[in-house]
Amino acid sequence: xxxxxxxxxxxxxxxxxxFIVAGLLIWLAIAKEYEPTLLLPIGFGAILANIPLSAxxxxxxxxxxxxxxxxxxxxxxxxxxxxxxxxxxxxxxMIDFTPLLQRPVLLLFGAAAQFGIFVTLCIAALAGFSLKExxxxxxxxxxxxxTSIYVATKFAPHLRAPISVAAYSYMAxxxxxxxxxxxxxxxxxxxxxxxxxxxxxxxSRATKILFPILLTLLASLLVPSATALIGFLMFGNLLREAxxxxxxxxxxxxxLANLVTIxxxxxxGSTMTAEAFLRPSTLLILGMGLVAFVFDTAGGVLFAKLLNxxxxxxxxxxxxxxxxxxxxxxxxxxxxxxxxxxxxSILLMHAVGANVGGQxxxxxxGGLILALVR
Length: 374
Hints:
single chain, mainly alpha, two-stranded antiparallel sheet
């Protein structure tokens, strides 16, 4: 009888709080459909990890530590960075870089919209975090979950859970975060600027094939620390564009993406124990993650407005906000805002181009952080 009551008697207020947090993530996934493929397994993983004496994670039996399956997955898939890198293959296989190749200038927005990373890094350092911890928090501004997990695993594994939750939660909240920032920085007239959709240049198959290869070589030579990040992303895209391995490309887009997403989500959730998650630093990280997304958006918009000072054919400054890596949500948000200002405006293709540029920019930014922070 005492053994049966060991679990209930071991419950603490911290466990109860984590059950509420997990329930909130699951509610957001199901009721609001915010990043459900990740928030749902993360939430359930958090429940499994916070059950007292849970056999799902490492636990002590008779004075000996017994390894739990979720802790094993953390060691095999997260500590080795394997799961985030496999996700990059899947993401690369899903992305069509054609809009970016038609308008290479949009890649500049993918760079400008990483501004929030470095602002947040500085804020975190001023708040008392170490340089590596600050870099891990700042990378939330990449708006790219796998990149955030990868950098946090390298630099601050003890902060990985709140960083992952912040990254994926704010990606899901892009439709709520970005519009107020954009409206604050632009006039209705600027938001109504039309961009030509009839000058789309055809992109040859050879160009689509060479792009991931050459970008991998260039980015890796300049930033060797980014080789794994950019290489796995571009390999997935090469599978898509090669045209001779459709089965592998579809497998990466579907089976690989689905399986690794499940494992990554529930594994990240299993690290959200009450002891590790319920700290003042968690609230700081969540707050600074929001700051990162706000500054990403502002940086992209202000960069586009700066470009317009020297352009004859003006760019809709909202396109700059698409430079974050939250693909394709940000592109949809900007297209919707454009149509609110002018129902005849069609910004989707330009927005998608900047958005996929942001995917590349976020990965390179992650590599730069890894290279520069020691």
